[in-house]
Amino acid sequence: MLQKYQFEGTDIDSLDLKALIVTRGVKVKDDVYTEFGQRFRINPNPLTCNCVILPDGTIAQLTDVALHLRYIKQAMSLESLKQMGTFFGGWKPLDLKMSESGEPVLSYNGEKITDVRFPPKSDFYNQKTSSGLPFVGNAVLQGTDCVAFQSLWPCELARAGYSCQFCYTGGISEQLAKKHKPEPPIPSARDAAEIVDYAVNKENIGDYLQITGGSTMNPQAECHIISELLREIDSVAGLRNLKGEVLIFTTPPSDPRMLDQIFHAGADRVACSLEVWDEKFAPIITPGKVKFTTRKRHFDALKYIAKEYGPNKACSTFVVGLESVDSFLQGAETLAQDGIVAMASLWIPFGRPVMGNAKAPGLDYYRKVKYGLAEIYEKYGIVPPGGAGFNVDIDKDIWRHRSELRNMVVAA
Ligand code: SF4
Questions:
Q1: Structural domains in the chain, sorted by start
Q2: Tens digits of per-residue pLDDT, 192-215?
């Protein structure tokens, strides 16, 4: 059952609260890090991808806005920073502090919302690979059961000046390229395999594996690189030791049959993400994808996967909050009819402004998303990837509560 809370005098549930936590960010008191960092996985380094766990188990990304803002300046153009400045005028994050009884408490405007928990302590971020590459900054733990590589190689679209407007790592690559600066070192296949081995076999905290790299302009996309990577991970960590699934995010190749090698190398699902459904906004928000890899290639790849490998094997992330709810849900339903999973990643407006806007929609928007997606998932038998849930994606949380959400709609 979804846990209920009070927020500014209204009833909200854990999915509403996740949307608030992720899209507004949180001001974290220093003593939260010092008191709980000894026993739990919470770290002041913004690269460690902290999360909170709500009382019903819902996981939400914990972005400490003060630390984050210091860090993001490198990813922003002057113009974006000015837009962010306008946004900060009317923006108020949630607060996380220690209660008198010694529990971490989430509040807003001085009113308690709920106690929260953190994942168990881990030594993951203190590790280095045998080549000396630190885990931190190259891989993250998401929630309680997922090890993820968020950007295993630089995005060529971003380096060419066509980064997606919402994409934080793309923004960094674009700025580095403009300043003629090199990208930081990237993990080799062996590095990545050792990181997975540690998470899966040493600490037992990686049931699910997510691999993402930047988009490439190669017609083969990254299929050959990912296949080699999966083979190396298999030889070092053993893909059979993962209790969950391997989810690969990749650029769609010019010939969708090239995706076969990724499945043959051990992927359970492959995502070729459209990010926005609205055709008017796509060229503005995702200029490189529209210009170079094209929406048609995305559709061809997704349909090919669904046809060859069955329902729920092809996925597309959508950054939820950028386009109208109706447009997003129309996209989700169109894809679902072919057995393709629309994943819903909550837009973090204090990451980068989009179309001059740095303000997330209100709760009504996210409520329509949750009811609409619950309906679509149920109607078409769609099952989003992941186990306990991811930090920023809300699709699996909605799926877990889909019957309850649909009953709420019927009762209303
Ligand atoms: S193509 Fe992918 S990595 Fe590149 S800017 Fe867009 S979302 Fe970011």
A1: 4-411 (3.20.20.70)
A2: 999 999 999 999 999 999 999 889
